[in-house]
Amino acid sequence: MLMNNAPWIYSLDQNLLRPPPPRRRTRVTSDPCLPERLPNAGVLQREAEHEAPKAILRQLRRSPSPTDSPVFEADEDPPGHKRTLSLSSVASSASSTKALGSSLVQRKQNGQIPIGWKEPQPFEILRAIERKDNEYIGEVRDKAFHLLVRMSGGVTPLMHAMRLGPSHREVAILLIGAFSRWVNNLEDDQMEDPRTKVILKALRTNLKLAIDYGLTKTQGSDLTASFLQTLVMSQGEVWVLGQAGNVSLALRAGTEGRPVQTADAAVRKFATRELGKADLIASLADYMANATADLLLMGAWMNVSEVLELGPIPTYYFARDDRVYRAFVDRLDEHKNAIQYKVSKRLRWQLRVMRTVLEGRSTTFRSKVELLRGELDEGEGV
C-alpha cells in the first residue's frame, strides 16, 4: 500500500527553515578584585632604594673591562665641555679650607702660642668648668689644647666636669667634642711629632678614666668611639697592619675567604678586649662599621701594592671618617692604567665593588658594610 509522505516532508522542511526562538541570557555581574593589595608609595620607594645598589653591583660583575666601571673615570673633559661645580666638589673645597684652618690651629696647639696670650694655670681651667665658661674653655682648646688633657691634683678637666654632675653635662660634651676635633684634624706631618704622641697618650688616659667612671651611660657612644680612635692612633699601628694583612689574604680567596666577616670579627675582638662591656660595644655600631670598611680598603690596597710595588695606606688614617676611602680612591686614580693591565680580574672586581658601595654619605657605614657582605662574602664572586 502506498502512503503519501509529502505532508510530513513539508512539515519537517518548514521547521528547519524557521529560525529558533531567541533565548534569554543571564547577565554576568561585574565584581573585579585584586588578589592582594598593592603597597603604598613609601614601601615601593624603600624597596627600590634597597634593590638599586644590588643591581649596580650585579652590573659591575658583568663589566668586561675596568675602564667601563666607575673605578676608572676619565680625568679629562671632552673638547668644548665646561666643567661645572657639583655638590661634591663644593664640599671638597670646603673641607680643604677647613683643613687649612685646622692646620693653623694645630700649630698653635703644638707650642706656637700667639703673642700676648698667657697659658692658664690648671686651677683656672677647673674654675672655668665650674662656672660653665664655655667661651674660655673654647679659647684654651684652640690655643693650648694640651692643657685640657693634663692631670693636676689627681683630676683632669673632663673628670672634674663629670664629678660636678648633670648640671655640667654640656661642659663635658664640649670637652669630648674638643678631643674628637683634635684627633680628626691631625695632619700627616704631625703624626711623627713626639709632642703629638704625648698628647695622644694623655688623651687615651682621659678617655679611659671617663669610660670607667660611667660617662657613656649619659653621653651615648661619642666618648667610647673617641677612645677607640685614640687608642688605635696611639698604639694600634701593629694591630691595623696585622688585621689588614689578614683581610688581604681573605680577599685573595674570594667569597670563600669571607673578607667582610674577617674584618668585622677583628674589629669586634679589638673593641671587646679594650672595653670589655657589651653595652658599650653595641653603641659603637657606626664606628665599628667604619673600621670594618677601612680594613677592607687597606687589605685590598695591600694586594694591589704587592703587585705594583707601591706603599700602603698610612695606618693613622684608620677609622677617621672617610680618610682611608679618599686615600684609596686617589691611589686608584693615580695608578689606574697599571691596575688595569697587571692586577687580577678578581681584585679589579673587588676594587670596583668597594669604591662603588663606599662612595658618598647618603647611607650609613652599617648599610654599606652589609652590601659588601652580600657581594664579597655571599655573592657569586669572580
Distance between the termini: 100 Å
Largest sheet: none
Tally of structural domains: 2
What's the quaternary structure here? Answer: single chain
- The count of DSSP E runs of length 2 or more, i.e. the number of strands, is 0
Which segments are poorly predicted (pLDDT under 50) over 5 or more consecutive residues? Answer: 64-111
Order of helices and strands: HHHHHHHHHHHHHHHHHH
Number of helices: 18
Going by helix content, strand content and strand pairing, the class is: mainly alpha
- Which band does the percent of strand residues land in? under 5%
Helix content: 55-70%
Q: Label the overall shape.
A: elongated
Evaluate the radius of gyration.
34 Å
Describe this structure in words.
The protein has 382 residues and is mainly α. It has two domains: 98-234, no CATH class; 236-382, no CATH class. The chain is built from 18 helices and no strands. It has helices spanning 6-17, 41-62, 87-109, 122-130, 134-143, 157-163, 169-184, 194-213, 216-219, 222-235, 237-252, 259-275, 278-282, 285-308, 323-334, 336-342, 345-358, 365-377. It is elongated.
